[in-house]
Design a protein that fits this description.
By secondary structure, the chain is mainly β. Helices cover 14% and strands 43% of the residues. Among the domains are: 2-55, no CATH class; 100-206 and 368-384, no CATH class. It has eight helices and 26 strands. Residues 104-338 form the F-box associated beta-propeller type domain.
């Protein structure tokens, strides 16, 4: 931080110490405002461009929900970034924040302010995007062959990597319709690397369920990525764990749920301020149960609470009788339940009270989140 605070004899703002201006004011500005502030003076630009400052600025940014999607009438879909407010704030509302420029794409992973986009057009491919800096670069990985399971920063090397699942599908090529089958398994793609993806094989005893990982939320905490896997036919669900340092798989025990045959559930994981949480919803999304992994090493789960959603109030507000879909996320110190219903995205607190609503065509509730960053990455130039 010494480099950032050595502004020289002239203070940044008269009457205030430079440390206060830098580490209490500038570091809290949104990225757009911070970029504009660099035009004030060369010293402002130098101070706000150091790596220490940008890392601290990134950590101070609010957590944003990445939601989908808008149809402008032409059949083209966009990904919107939506802000969800703090439950304790007055007149809480979900708000539109920004819209990605790319069309016909979906956000499939996020990490440290970076988004992994999957294009659905012909000749589909992936790209990496930083919405704060408007940088975007394609990845040489075909969407129709690979499915991303998650994106992470490999701490031993500092590299950003993507864990891919090879679908191992039969492919038909050429006039003679030659059929071949790839080896399949999981691959590691290093952003900015010119080397092909490394195949690390299948997780042990999980081939039959791994293909479903990409449809649920991946939770990155304690140096591991986590997915919830349903295996009721095998006597119990489990959590698949990927160690991002050793890049190896293992299994953890999931909570034991009492499931009635006529009341199916859908379950998924979420990050509860550094603790692994799991939510379970009944089929009509009227009841949400929340579990917490209190003892990570010994895999001991504890039941936290039961939330009864205001289903009647939601249906009266939205004027529809559609089905509800709910997810649980953790944002800025509070647990939130987001309900997708008839073109609405609704926010419910832990008491089951409706505290926010947002009308959005073809809205899709998800658990991907974004903390904006202005930290530069060299892999954008390499990929371009």
């Amino acid at each position: 931080m010494a480099d950032a605070t050595s502004a020289g004899a002239t203070p940044l703002l008269p009457g205030l110490p430079d440390d206060i201006v830098i580490w209490e004011i500038l570091v809290r500005l949104p990225p757009k405002a911070l970029l504009r502030s660099r035009a004030v003076h060369p010293s402002w630009r130098r101070i706000t461009s150091t790596r220490d400052f940008l890392l601290t600025h990134h950590a101070r940014q609010p957590t944003l929900l990445v939601a989908s999607g808008h149809d402008d009438g032409s059949g083209e879909y966009y990904r919107d970034i939506i802000v969800f407010g703090h439950p304790a704030a007055a007149d809480v509302q979900l708000e539109h924040f920004t819209q990605l420029d790319e069309r016909d794409c979906s956000v499939v992973a996020s990490c440290d302010g970076l988004l992994l986009l999957s294009y659905e057009t012909e000749g589909a491919c992936f790209s990496i995007c930083n919405p704060a800096t408007h940088q975007c670069a394609p990845l040489p990985v075909p969407c129709d062959l690979m499915m991303p399971l998650g994106m992470y920063r490999h701490h031993p090397t500092g590299e950003y990597r993507i864990l891919m699942y090879d679908k191992n599908e039969e492919e038909i090529e050429g006039e003679n319709e030659e059929i071949y089958v790839r080896d399949g398994g999981c691959c590691i793609f290093e952003l900015g690397s010119v080397q092909p993806s490394r195949n690390i094989g299948y997780p042990p005893e999980a081939e039959q369920v791994l293909s479903r990982c990409g449809h649920g939320a991946v939770v990155l905490l304690r140096g591991n990525m986590h997915w919830y896997l349903e295996q009721r036919e095998n006597g119990g669900d489990m959590v698949l764990v990927f160690d991002i340092a050793t890049e190896s798989f293992r299994h953890m025990q999931a909570p034991v749920l009492q499931v009635a045959p006529d009341c199916p559930l859908y379950n998924d994981l979420f990050d509860m301020d550094g603790t692994l949480g799991m939510f379970s919803c009944n089929d009509d999304a009227a009841i949400v149960d929340i579990w917490v992994l209190k003892d990570y090493e010994n895999e001991v789960w504890t039941f936290k609470c039961k939330i009864e959603l205001p289903v009647i109030e939601i249906k009266l507000l939205c004027g529809d009788d559609d089905s509800l879909y709910a997810v649980v996320i953790h944002g800025d110190g509070e647990l939130l339940v987001l309900v997708q219903f008839a073109g609405w995205l609704l926010q419910v607190d832990m008491e089951g009270k409706l505290v926010g609503s947002f009308h959005h065509d073809k809205v899709i509730a998800g658990q991907l989140q974004l903390k904006q960053t202005l930290v530069p990455h060299t892999f954008f130039q390499t990929l371009e």
